[in-house]
Automatic annotation (TrEMBL):
One of its GO terms (biological process) is dTDP-rhamnose biosynthetic process. It catalyses: dTDP-beta-L-rhamnose + NADP(+) = dTDP-4-dehydro-beta-L-rhamnose + NADPH + H(+). One of its GO terms (cellular component) is cytosol. It comes from Maribellus comscasis. NCBIfam families: rmlD. It is an enzyme of class 1 (oxidoreductase). This is dTDP-4-dehydrorhamnose reductase. The lineage of its organism: Bacteria, Pseudomonadati, Bacteroidota, Bacteroidia, Marinilabiliales.
Length: 289
């Protein structure tokens, strides 16, 4: 098995790189913007023809949610156009593709965990371009697997956990919004799930079922709850006060509710999904080391 990873410098790409050491029988090709321009159709086609991967995992994305409101062209190229290019090139060499998407494809107005069949209605450029990327991926390669995730964090890169740890050391008190509800997702768990799905495709190809799936850790939290957990685990003595989102206006609207229903991915691929607080502790131990 030869597996090509795009967005290798990101949180998820780095977590896959760590876990790849356990899969000595597989060959991994890690790429990012400096080695493969995924927005260039000819470059992608040439790269795929030369390397002949069996699997492509597209972790690359434009994730600057607020900046996307003004950098529409860049967000569109990376989030919407590139997935179609990758899916098309994968189809040409009979490779399978797993594309990572987001909870931002929903309006955020739900009040029950969101299944894959829920109507999509993104409110900002980031969500709109990611939804377009899903559609382009499926259009160019109907055998695609799309995995929507939420509130991703890791020992790698910049994320909410690292920001809270930094601010907790700098300040005695913080205000964090409590009216945005979702589930924190440890990128290491998502990486493990992706590699499990690829393993199924290798050993039991009939059980590799294409389609859209949701993956986050189990449980529910607000950003306020998330920050409180970070400080409790770290032992930082920083007081956190809950505030409404309107006290921190942003160019792009955040979903008020984006808890994902994981039943489909859990049942289809027999995955065990950890509770978010347990995984947060695992990640924070890695950050400390």
């Amino acid at each position: 098995m030869k597996i090509l990873i795009t967005g290798a410098y990101g949180q998820l790409g780095n977590e896959i790189k760590v876990l790849s050491e356990k899969y000595s029988a597989w060959e991994f090709i890690f790429t990012d913007v400096d080695s493969l321009d995924i927005t260039n159709k000819n470059a992608v086609a040439d790269f795929f023809q030369k390397t002949k991967p069996d699997f492509i995992v597209n972790c690359a994305a434009y994730t600057a949610v607020d900046r996307a409101e003004t950098e529409v062209e860049t967000a569109t190229k990376i989030n919407a156009t590139a997935p179609g290019i990758l899916a098309n090139a994968a189809s040409e060499i009979s490779a399978k593709i797993i594309h990572i998407s987001t909870d931002y494809v929903f309006s955020g107005e739900a009040f029950l965990p969101l299944s894959e069949e829920e109507p999509v209605k993104p409110t900002g450029i980031y969500g709109k371009t990611k939804l377009e990327g899903e559609k382009n991926c499926i259009k160019e390669n109907p055998e695609s697997v799309i995995i929507r995730t939420s509130w991703l964090y890791s020992a790698f890169g910049n994320n909410f956990v690292k920001t809270m740890l930094r601010l907790g050391k700098e300040r005695d008190a913080l205000k964090v919004v409590f009216d945005q509800i979702g589930t924190p997702t440890y990128a290491g768990d998502l990486a493990a799930a992706i590699l499990s799905i690829i393993e199924i495709a290798e050993t039991e190809p009939v059980n590799f079922v294409s389609g859209i799936y949701h993956y986050s850790n189990e449980g529910v939290a607000s950003w306020f709850d998330f920050s409180k957990a970070v400080f409790e685990i770290s032992g930082l003595n920083c007081k956190v006060s809950p505030v409404l989102s309107k006290e921190f206006p942003t160019p792009a609207k955040r979903p008020s509710y984006s808890v994902l229903n994981k039943s489909k991915i859990r049942n289809t691929f027999a995955l065990e999904i950890p509770y978010w607080k347990d995984s947060l502790e695992v990640c924070m131990n890695k950050i400390e080391k």
